[in-house]
Amino acid sequence: MVKSIKPVVHDNEFSRYPSISPNGEKLAYILRNAEGEYNLVTRSLEPSDYKSKVLYKSDGILQSPVWSPDGNQIAFISLDNLGCQISIISLLTKKSLSVVECSGDMTNPIEWVKKG
Known about the structure:
This protein is mainly β.
């Protein structure tokens, strides 16, 4: 049951693609800052702790962050001068890994699937 609704991003931020963590405690989203840089950001949904953390920065476009089922990784789409990549970043190590190339016109969201 929703107790109240409060904004968790500022009006002066260009924020897109919100994704709530599996445990419902964090939000991942893409933020474009004033310099035009795209950032993959996480933020607590706890009202007493709205601190945001930039996990990944890019001069290219970032899209569609999605949490892994265990909440320890986030997959996202990156479009830059190297092309279109689907990457994964670990929230534990803060290291990212490009896992597959994608078409440059990819606009569909991505999702985690069980192997097998």
